[in-house]
Each structure stands twice: as structure tokens, then as C-alpha cells.
Amino acid sequence: MRTVAVVGGSLGGLRTAETLRSAGWTESVVVIGSEADMPYTRPPLSKKILSDGGTFDNVRLRPRLADDDVDWRLGVSVAKADLAERRLYLSDGQVVEFDALVAATGVAPRTLPVSGPDAGRHTLRTLDDARAVHRELGPDRRVVVIGAGFIGCEVAAAARAKGCEVDVVCADEVAMLRPLGREVGQAIQRSHAAAGIRFHSRRTVQRYVGTDRASGVVLDDGLHLTADVVVEAVGSAPNVKWLEGNGLDTTDGVICDSWLRMGGVAATAAVGDVARFPNTLFDAVPRRFEHWQMAVDTARQAARTIMHDLSEAPAPLSAFEPLPSFWSDQGTVRVDSFGSPGIADSFAVLEGDLSGGCAVGYYRAGRPVGVVLICMPRRSGHYRTWIAEQLY
Ligand SMILES: Cc1cc2nc3c(=O)[nH]c(=O)nc-3n(C[C@H](O)[C@H](O)[C@H](O)COP(=O)(O)OP(=O)(O)OC[C@H]3O[C@@H](n4cnc5c(N)ncnc54)[C@H](O)[C@@H]3O)c2cc1C
Is the pLDDT at 67 greater than 90, yes or no? Predict the structure, then answer.
């Protein structure tokens, strides 16, 4: 009996196991995940769970698997993989031998390298993180959010909706500058400012104030922001340490070939947030995507790649060219994105205007590479088709 080992028991890991089974893999599948819970979905953590609190049942992903389809090993981490020996060494001393390996270990939130008390400082990746932030929010609580990317803006909007006083510290000129560009970022930031969120742009944190608990933040221009709670939303680092020592490039996620094989090694694959791969829809540059739908799309491809590589008479693999997409709910602001707006060099408003709902096309060297909708979710089907027609 051969074994496919999947490391990471969340969205990407679950969808990989499901696709292996639905595609006819009848041999063993082991999923090893460091979180003790069965797989759950993360997008509600910075939205509904912050607003209303919630239980595991509100976020759990219901596996499309029979009970004995997968050997789940949860609450234990893989400390090291040996690709040559085809073995995994687990943190509890277990050794798992595999014939094929899928990395689905996602990312961990970065923290600011600024000294100060730990209490009152939060990051947001797990259900426990979200519950801890939820408990801190309420009318007139002073919340400082560090970082104005998607998660930072979602946290700020959720906190403001609960009556908090909210300051956002942003190292860039405007919120979401890198993924959406200056003008669109500015338009979204204006909506948040109109709701009462204060932005401190081009500012960084110099130090935290407080002895037992963070009670404020001092910025590089000397401004002191008082805080009951601080949320650091300053990006993430791929969970790749366990893969080190195998000659793979793990500088920002694990570099894969066009079919998601790690370093091109047969019968291995990476999926979801940890995978960096070239997408010939755009160019040959390997990129990572921290998008819910990409975890699903890469999981399906990884299962196909593994089954191909373990097959005795494989049919050729077709090209893997997924259309990246994500959404973000930031209070009254809804963002839907298709394609890769972050690689564009110009943009044009296609419908509506930047002061209200709009659809914005993104272009590189004159060719459409993405489209972003602000507060126009009903038009997402139309624009998804439009950009797909341009790209495929
Ligand atoms: C707060 C929040 C809000 C989000 N909102 C949106 C949104 O609105 N729209 C959108 O498109 N996307 C959103 N995302 C992104 C989306 O949730 C991710 O893209 C998706 O979760 C990626 O799935 P994954 O399986 O690759 O990684 P993860 O979900 O990170 O799962 C990786 C799993 O691997 C485990 N693991 C790590 N290292 C090891 C190890 N050595 N051994 C064993 N297990 C290990 C981790 O504990 C974790 O359980 C959001 C993410 C967060 C955190």
C-alpha cells in the first residue's frame, strides 16, 4: 500500500485529500496538521468572528470524505522532511514514510521586531486569535491596527463597526498600495476615513508603551497613540522550515514547477499559501497567492500531479493556469479581484467611479491582467468572464 502524505490540515490539505479520493486514489492518505481542530475556513476570522464571536461550528469545513478515507494526525507538527529517504519526522517522535508528499503548511503571521509587553498585542491567523481579538473589542475601546493590507483593513472596519476608536498605522502612502495601486487604495482608504477610522500613512512603529500590557504605540514621528488593544497585521511568513535541507528554494514559500512539484521533484507538490509557482497566464515568474480560492485550485492540481507521477502509464498533464481571485469584506467596502492587479503598470475605470462603486481594469504593457470591483459584487460574474476572455 503506497502513502500520500499531506502536511498541513487546513483548506489546502483537506481539498488535496478530497481530490485524491474523488479522482480514484484508493491507497493510503495521511494528513498531518499542527492545529488540533479539523480543517476550518479562515476568511470569517477577520469579519464575522470579530463582529459576533463564534464557535468552531461557524467556521468548520465539512469534509467530503468518508471517515476512513484519511488517516488524520492532528495536533502534531512535521519537524523535518527527508525527500531522498521519503520520510517525515514528527514533533512527537513518530516517523511517517511516504511515496508522495504534499506541502500545505500555509503561512504564519509576521510580528513587529519591536520590544514591549506581549499582553494586549495580537495577530490574526487562527480561530483562537480571532476569538481573543473579539473579546477585546467594544464601544470606545481604543484599537491600533498596524498594517493596512486586506487583513488590517478588515480588522479596522470590524472594530469600528463595534464602536471602537480605531487608528491604522500604514508604512505605505495608502492602504493596499501593492495589491491595488495608489488610486484604488486611496479611494478605499477615503471610505474607511469617512467611517471614522484614522490612518497614519508613511509611518512605522518605533516602540510600544506599557509595562505589563501594551497601552500605546509611539510612531517614528513621535506621535503617541493610546491603545487598549493592538493588532499587528504586517504580513506573513511561509511555513517552510520543515522542508529545509532538501535543496529546495524556500526563500518565499517553496518554489514549484508549473504543475506544483516542489523544486520539480516527482511525486511532490505544494499547495495554497505556501506554494510559489509560475502561471503562464501572466509570465514565467513564480509567485505566491494568499487567496482562499487558490488554495482550492492548487489542491486539485496537486492531486492530479501526484496521481500522474505515481501512475505506471501516465497521460500527459495539461497546463495549470488558474485565474487568481479573492474577495475582501471591509465593513461597507466590498472588494472582488480577478487576475493579478498587483503586476499592472496602469489602470482604467471601466464602470462607475472611484468615489463610489466601480470596476477597475488593470493593464501591463497595454494588456489586461486583472480587474477589481469596489462595492459591485453583483457585477463580479460579468467581469470575471471579461478578464478570463482577455487572459485565456
Ligand atoms: C484572517 C484571515 C482572513 C482571510 N480572508 C480572506 C478573504 O476574505 N478572501 C480570500 O480570498 N482569502 C482570505 N484569507 C486567505 C485564506 O484563508 C488562505 O489563503 C487559506 O487559508 C490558505 O489555505 P492553506 O491551506 O494554504 O493554509 P492555512 O490555512 O494557513 O493552513 C496551513 C495549516 O498547516 C499547518 N502547519 C503549518 N506548519 C506545519 C507543520 N510543520 N506540520 C504540520 N502542520 C503545519 C498550520 O497550522 C495550518 O493549520 C484570509 C486569511 C486569514 C488568516
Answer: no
Share of the chain above pLDDT 90, in %: 96
Residue 116 has pLDDT above 90, yes or no: no
Residue 76 in contact with residue 92, Cβ under 8 Å?
yes
* Rounded (5°) CA angle 344-346-349: 110
Rounded mean pLDDT, 341-358: 96
Q: Where in the chain is the domain with CATH 3.30.390.30?
A: 332-391
| Cβ–ligand 1 contact at 34 (below 6 Å) | yes
360: cell is 477597475
The span from the CA of 67 to the CA of 57, in Å, is: 18
Cα–Cα–Cα angle for 220, 177, 343, rounded to 5 degrees: 140
CB of 273 closer than 6 A to ligand 1?
A: yes
pLDDT digits 0-9 by tens, 356-367:
899 999 999 999
Distance between CA atoms of 29 and 21, rounded to whole angstroms? 9
Residue 106: Cβ-neighbour burial (10 angstroms; 0-12, 13-18, 19+): buried
Domain 332-391 has CATH 3.30.390.30: yes
The whole-model pTM stands at 0.97
Q: Ligand 1 centroid vs 367 CA: distance in angstroms?
A: 32
